[in-house]
Structures are given as C-alpha cells and as structure tokens.
C-alpha cells in the first residue's frame, strides 16, 4: 500500500529536489520513448542533449535560444508570484517583434546610432502595450486573465501575419511574407566573433539580477509575494492590489517585448511569421521548473533551450519529427506537478493491514489529510 | 445578400459551431463537478490526430470517432490523476495537459501532415432539407451535428431531472458535504473529466474528419480555449452553450458575410474575429462579478481530498 500523508510543514528539500526528479523522469521517459521508436536510446539521448553543445559554437547557440525564453520566464515568474495567471508572454513577445520591426524597417538604409536602441524600445513598448491591455481587462473589466491572455496570443499572431503579408512586407521580397532585412545599424551587436550570441545575453543577465533584487530585497517584491499567497492578507495590510498586478504584468510585457525585439534584431534579422517556436509557452514551464526564482529559472531556461536544440538535432540526425520538443516540454511540466506532491505529502509504504483497511479501501492513493 | 448565401451561412454556422458545442458541453459537465480542465485545446488536437489516423487506415468513421473519443478519455485520465489524486493546481495541470497533448499530436501526426480523407457525409432528410433558408442548416447536416443536438437535450435533462445530475452538481458545489452524504466524490469527478475528454476528442475529430477532412499541426486554432470562454458565456447552462457556440460559429464566418456585403477585408484581420469576439463576450459577461459567482460552481478549481 502506498499512502500519502499530509506534512505539517512544506518540505524545503523536496521544493528543490522535485524539479530535479521531474527532469530525471523526463529523461527516463525519453529513454523509453526512443527505444520504442527503434532508436538506440543512449545514442538518441546523446544526440538530443550532449551533441548540440559539444563545442563552443553549440554552447553559443544554446545561449541564443535561451535568451528569449529567459526574458519571458523572469517576467512570468513575477506574475505567478502575484498569482496572476499570465499565459500571454507569447503574444507579448510577438507584439514586441512586430513593433520593433515596424521601427527597424524605417532604418534599413540609415546608419544612425539611434536605429538599434529605438528598435529595442519599440519592442519593449509593444510588449508593454499588449500586457497593459490584459491588465486593463483583468483589473477594470474583471475578466479572467487566463482566457484573455490566450485570446490575445492568437490575436497577436494574426497581427504578425497581417504585418508580414501587408504593411511590413518587403516590396523587393519576391512576394515572400517577410519584412526587408534589417540594416546593420539596427542589428544587435554580436558579443563573440563567429557566433550569433548577441547583446540580448547582457539584457538577460540584467533582467536576472533586477528580478532577484526585486523579489529578495524590495518591499514591492514582498508585497507581490503576500498578494500571491493571501489576497485578503494583502488587502488587510493595505497593499495596492491594482498597482501590484499592473506592475507585474507590465514588467512581464516589457521583458517579453524585449525578447521579441531581440529575436528580430538579433539572430533572425527581419520579421518572419515564425519568430517564436512557442518561447512564451515554454517560459511558463521554465518559470515553474525554476521555482519562480531567478537562479532556478536560469538553469531551467538553459535546459529548455537545450530541448529546443535537441529537437532540431534529432530531426536532422535521427529523422524524428521536430515536435518531439513539445513532448519533452509537456512531460517535464507533467512530472514536475506530479513530483510537487512530495512537497506537501509524505509517502508512506505500508503493508496491507486488516485493521487499517476500513479507511484505506475508499481510495488507497488519495491523500489523507491528518491535520 | 441573396437567399442562397444566407442559407449557406446558416448551414456553415451550425457546422462551425458544432466542435465548439461539443467541447463546451464536455467542459460544462466537468466544471459542474468542480473541476476546471484547461486541457481542452490539447485534447481536441489529440482527438483530431487520433481520429484522422484511425480513419485513414480503417476507412470507417465509427472507428475514427471512436478512436478520437478513447484518446480523449485516456489523456484526460492523466490530468485527472495529477489534479485529483496528487492535488496539483488544476490550472497548472490543465496547461500541462495542453502543452503535452499539443506536442504529442504534432509528433504522432508528423507523417500524416497535409493528407486528406473523405469527409463525413451529410445525412440529408429529403423533404425537410428543401425548406427555404433553414432547411439546409437543420436537415442536411452530418451525423455528429445531430449527435450534438441529442447530447444537448440529454445533458439538459440530466441536470434538470436526474438524480445523477444532481449528484454532479452537489460534488461541484460542496464536495465535503457531498462526501458526507455518501456520494463518491472522486469517482464522480473522474467520470466528469473523462466525459469532457471524450467530447473534446470527438470535437477534434469533427475538425479533421468532417469540417476540413485533413490533418495539419495545430489545426484546432484555439477552439478549445474559445470553448472554455463559452462555458462562462453560458453561465454553466447547457441550453445557453448551444446558443453561444452558434454565435461563435457565425462570428468565424465573417469572411462569408463580408463577401456577401461586397466588402474586401484582409484575411488575417478577419481571422482574428473569433478571438476578438471571445474577448468581447468575456468583457460583457464579467462586468458583474457577483452575478458571475452566482452561477459558477462553488468549489470550481479548488483542490479537495477526503477528510479535510
């Protein structure tokens, strides 16, 4: 018999260990999955997780992939800490990319030093604007933020498609749905020669440091935390709920918008329909896997970037569909939520005992609260 | 606009609304039992791909839709396990379900991308289908459309007149009281989640076997999410979900309407209409939080376990 027993206090050890266990279980499932697909599992796992970062170029590419995920995830973590279910980082990223491209295409033939900063600012503004709409609908119009932000993701995608087919389409682009290539003055500088690793990495590091300061050191961060854990306590303490919710949403929007701008003005260099393979959604998993903590998120984000790269590698080397990335992402969140049960419950292995059978028969696995 | 165009718009409205109606109906029953399953979009996608593959190889609609329903049930069990047994946040578990199922559907369907099957044929009732304007919409539809109507009536009767319907509602309002009254809370919630999974699977297969008889990645395009909004729109009432689904079906057909009025609007902007309509509906309905709470099942999305 396996029985779950409620803990008096949440387990700190499992708080840290459950993400690791979830990753291990995901790898184990991957092992079985590859075997079932007729691949040699250890070779497949090597191709997926080691081969992509076997050299310096691979590592630089991993960082390139991780930048937009992390920027979104730091922002989402703030929202989730405040119990604001913002699922809209994807849309905010896309709008950032569109807004940045609208500005960048003005500078195609210019070598103004303002081209790059203005492009980034436009991206940030695009993300903030999109998040502000969600904040307005949540706070003033009392709508459910989950559904609102998801709808806005779809709307943002359609705005992006409209932009690349319409106003931002390259007139000399042979009718392809893409904008003109950005001018050199617009592109983010590359940090290391022969890589695509760009200035976005610095923004990421700053975002990480600032979000750590916000969470750990600031009174606003503390208020956010209280708001997230106990809405009525926050109200009693006189915290301004509207201000806090708006703040976390706008910060998230700004970071996601910056991520979008960093993609179009960084590795991609123009606006195309596929500027994001779901970075905004992946960031949700990363935020949870990283325990909403900047350092944890950074590690989880690197793992997520690796999963994206591994998916591409598996497609090229093993001929597997790229969608295997999505499976790994989903499995990881699933396992994380399952393992998190260990934070709140103790697992008891018990020999089936007749005297206990009365209260065990109803649901042997069901958590039995004993408070 | 001429008569023929109006006739066709009505016909297409019902067809477009049918998958929404099916998913939303499943979600209503799920939410009535107190469980918020945000995995509808993912379950629809898995249903769409499973139904398509089954149909592709068997050439049988029964096997196609059966496989879709079964897939929906099986994947919904994964959600039920972590949400009900492991007491994970239902919101997070639902999102996880959608992310996992979306990935799985794309993976399983990779070899079938862009392939087509024969579409589910219409079951036309000859005399009645000839009625001008509404005849085609009501009497020249396919079997799943008729099935959705039967399900609406059954669900209505279930909640209004049947003890089991009352039990589901009791479990959704107050599981502790329901449990003390001797109702098997867990079993009822499991069944409600599974029912939602089955309907989401069928709804997905309706897209890939009837509406557009082909498989492409992410072909549900947010319909699962729209259906979740429809449940709020319907304030958890079966008869109103039907109205909502068809209103949305109509909103998605703006290109036909625009064409009828002789307007030319950019296709991508028109494609936004269902999502904009969803936002509008959410805003209109959420103005009054008191009223919204009046209809919402009391324990919706709240974790519960026996003995608490």
From TrEMBL, chain A:
Q: What is this protein called?
A: ABC transporter permease
Which region is the signal sequence?
Answer: none
An example Gene Ontology CC term for this record: plasma membrane
KW DNA repair (keyword) present: no
InterPro entries (UniProt xref): ABC_transp_permease (IPR001851)
Q: How does it sit in the membrane?
A: Multi-pass membrane protein
* Cellular localisation: Cell inner membrane
Give this protein's Gene Ontology molecular function annotations: transmembrane transporter activity
Keywords recorded for this protein, A-Z:
Cell membrane, Membrane, Transmembrane, Transmembrane helix
* The organism's place on the tree of life at top rank: Bacteria
Reply yes or no: does the keyword Transmembrane helix apply: yes
Mostly located where? membrane
Which residue spans traverse the membrane?
A: 12-36, 56-80, 92-108, 114-134, 146-164, 197-215, 244-262, 268-288, 295-311, 323-343
* Native source species: Thalassotalea euphylliae
UniProtKB/TrEMBL annotation, chain B:
Q: Topology in the membrane? A: Multi-pass membrane protein
- Which is a Gene Ontology cellular component entry for this protein? plasma membrane
Any idea where this protein resides?
Cell inner membrane
This protein's source sits in the domain of life called Bacteria
This entry's Gene Ontology molecular function terms read: transmembrane transporter activity
What keywords are assigned to this protein?
A: Cell membrane, Membrane, Transmembrane, Transmembrane helix
Q: Which residues cross the membrane?
A: 6-26, 38-56, 62-84, 91-110, 143-159, 190-209, 221-238, 245-263, 269-285
Is Transmembrane one of the keywords?
A: yes
Protein name (Swiss-Prot/TrEMBL): ABC transporter permease
Q: Which organism is it from?
A: Thalassotalea euphylliae
């Amino acid at each position: 018999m396996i029985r779950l027993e409620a803990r008096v206090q949440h387990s700190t050890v499992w708080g840290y260990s459950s993400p690791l266990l979830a990753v291990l279980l995901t790898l184990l499932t991957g092992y079985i999955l590859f075997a079932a697909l007729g691949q040699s599992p250890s070779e497949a796992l090597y191709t997926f997780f080691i081969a992509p970062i076997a050299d310096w170029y691979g590592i630089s590419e991993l960082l390139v992939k991780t930048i937009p995920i992390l920027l979104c995830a730091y922002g989402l973590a703030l929202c989730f800490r405040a119990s604001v279910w913002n699922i809209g980082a994807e849309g905010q990223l896309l709008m950032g990319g569109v807004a940045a491209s609208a500005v960048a295409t003005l500078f195609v033939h210019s070598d103004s030093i303002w081209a790059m900063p203005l492009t980034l600012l436009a991206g940030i503004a695009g993300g903030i604007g999109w998040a502000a709409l969600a904040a307005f609908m949540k706070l003033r119009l009392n709508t459910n933020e989950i559904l609102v932000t998801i709808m806005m993701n779809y709307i943002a995608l359609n705005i992006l498609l409209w932009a690349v087919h319409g106003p931002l389409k390259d007139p000399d682009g042979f009718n392809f749905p893409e904008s003109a290539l950005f001018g050199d003055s617009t592109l983010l500088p590359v940090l290391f020669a022969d890589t695509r690793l760009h200035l976005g990495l610095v923004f990421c590091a700053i975002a990480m440091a600032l979000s750590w300061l916000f969470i750990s050191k600031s009174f606003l961060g503390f208020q956010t935390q209280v708001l997230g854990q106990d809405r009525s306590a926050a109200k009693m303490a006189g915290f301004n709920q509207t201000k806090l919710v708006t703040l976390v949403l706008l910060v998230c929007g700004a970071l996601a918008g910056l991520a979008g701008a960093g993609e179009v003005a960084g590795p991609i260099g123009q606006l195309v329909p596929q500027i994001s393979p779901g970075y905004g959604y992946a960031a949700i998993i990363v935020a949870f896997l990283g325990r909403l903590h900047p350092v944890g998120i950074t590690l989880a984000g690197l793992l997520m970037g690796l999963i994206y790269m591994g998916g591409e590698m598996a497609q090229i080397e093993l001929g597997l569909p790229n969608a295997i990335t999505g499976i790994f992402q989903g499995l990881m969140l699933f396992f994380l939520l399952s393992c998190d049960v260990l934070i709140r419950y103790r697992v008891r292995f018990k020999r089936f005992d007749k005297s206990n059978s009365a209260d065990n028969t109803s649901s042997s696995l069901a958590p039995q609260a004993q408070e | 606009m001429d008569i023929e165009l109006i006739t066709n718009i009505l016909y297409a409205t019902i067809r477009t609304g049918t998958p929404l109606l099916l998913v939303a109906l499943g979600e209503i029953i799920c939410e009535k039992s107190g469980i918020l399953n945000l995995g509808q979009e993912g379950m629809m996608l898995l249903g769409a791909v499973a139904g398509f593959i089954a149909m592709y190889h068997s050439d049988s609609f029964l096997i196609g839709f059966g496989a879709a329903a079964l897939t929906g049930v099986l994947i919904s069990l994964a959600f039920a396990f972590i949400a009900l047994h492991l007491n994970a946040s239902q919101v997070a578990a639902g999102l996880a379900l959608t992310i996992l199922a979306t990935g799985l559907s794309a993976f399983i369907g990779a070899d079938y991308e862009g392939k087509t099957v024969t579409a589910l044929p219409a079951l036309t009732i000859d005399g009645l289908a000839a009625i001008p304007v509404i005849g085609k919409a009501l009497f020249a539809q396919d079997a799943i459309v008729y099935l959705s109507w039967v399900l609406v009536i059954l669900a209505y009767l279930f909640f209004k007149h049947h003890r089991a319907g009352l039990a589901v509602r009791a479990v959704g309002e107050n599981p502790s009281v329901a449990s003390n009254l001797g109702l098997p809370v867990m079993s009822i919630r499991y069944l409600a989640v599974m029912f939602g999974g089955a309907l989401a699977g069928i709804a997905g297969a309706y897209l890939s076997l009837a509406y557009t008889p082909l498989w492409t990645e992410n072909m549900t395009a947010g319909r699962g999410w729209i259906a979740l909004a429809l449940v709020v729109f319907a304030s958890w009432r079966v008869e109103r979900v039907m109205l909502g689904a068809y209103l949305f079906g109509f909103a998605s057909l703006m290109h036909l309407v625009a064409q009828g009025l002789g307007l030319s609007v950019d296709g991508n902007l028109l494609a936004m209409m269902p999502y904009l309509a969803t936002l509008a509906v959410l805003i209109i309905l959420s103005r009054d939080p008191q009223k919204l709470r009046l209809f919402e099942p009391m324990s919706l999305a709240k974790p519960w376990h026996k003995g608490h």
